[in-house]
Write a structure and sequence with these properties.
The complex is a heterodimer of chains A (115) and B (112). Helices cover 0% and strands 52% of the residues of chain A. Chain A contains no helices and eleven strands. Chain B has 112 residues and is mostly beta strands. Classes of the chains: A mainly beta (115), B mainly beta (112). At the A-B interface, strand 5 and strand 10 of A face strand 4, strand 5 and strand 10 of B.
Chain lengths: 115, 112
């Protein structure tokens, strides 16, 4: 158990639908990152939050949004789902801000299947 | 194109050494990392190296960094079947919010 909790583990839904993925970071970690892992795109950085504020944005689609709550848990919202959104979505957390080695601790992932 | 590149696949025999290679393009990388992903699991940090270091050893793992050639390698001594996994290298840069950029991963298969 890495200390990063992601729910749900598996999710099957239909095109056009909306889902929410949830992440609880490791205790004491202020940063939360979301990554998408698909077979053809590898591990793609989506977005980072640090202590409730958006810190960095990667290849996140406009249909996707995220937020980090005061208790530091984060949610990734995926809407108007397409077949190509099927992937493993990982959440990771870290202590550090912008200096030093950024040691990410990953959750086990949420596998999304869009039919 | 990708900023961090790795070969897709490596197969070794149990007991041999494995060397997984990675190249990166950004010379301002501050830290370089190796992560391991076992089937059905998230990524697990194996080790990391600061960019002003040439080598780091941790038990069976040896990381070599050639900053001139922007080349990073991970050597696993006495490879075991339990080492079969996907290995990702990653870089972070302080001037980019310390965000990690990952390579595409190398699948290591260890044959008994």
């Amino acid at each position: 158990d890495s200390g990063v909790t992601q729910t749900p583990k598996h999710l099957i839904t239909a095109t056009g639908q909306r889902v929410t993925l949830r992440c609880s970071p490791r205790s004491g970690d202020l940063s939360v990152y979301w990554y998408q892992q698909s077979l053809d795109q590898g591990l793609q950085f989506l977005i980072q939050y640090y202590n409730g504020e958006e810190r960095a944005k990667g290849n996140i689609l406009e249909r996707f949004s995220a937020q980090q709550f005061p208790d530091l848990h984060s949610e990734l919202n995926l809407s108007s789902l397409e077949l190509g959104d099927s992937a493993l979505y990982f959440c990771a957390s870290s202590v550090t801000g912008v200096a030093g080695a950024n040691v990410l601790t990953f959750g086990a992932g949420s596998r999304l299947t869009v039919l | 194109g990708e900023d961090v590149e790795q070969s897709l696949f490596l197969s070794v025999r149990e007991g041999d050494s494995s060397v997984i290679n990675c190249t990166y393009t950004d010379s301002s990388s501050t830290y370089l990392y190796w992560y391991k992903q076992e089937p059905g699991a998230g990524l697990q940090l194996l080790t990391y190296i600061f960019s002003n270091m040439d080598m780091k050893q941790d038990q069976r793992l040896t990381v070599l960094l050639n900053k001139k050639d922007k080349h990073l390698s991970l050597r696993i001594a006495d490879t075991q079947t339990g080492d079969s996994a996907i290995y990702f290298c990653a870089e972070s840069m302080n001037n980019a919010g310390n965000m990690l950029t990952f390579g595409g991963g190398t699948r290591l298969m260890v044959k008994p």
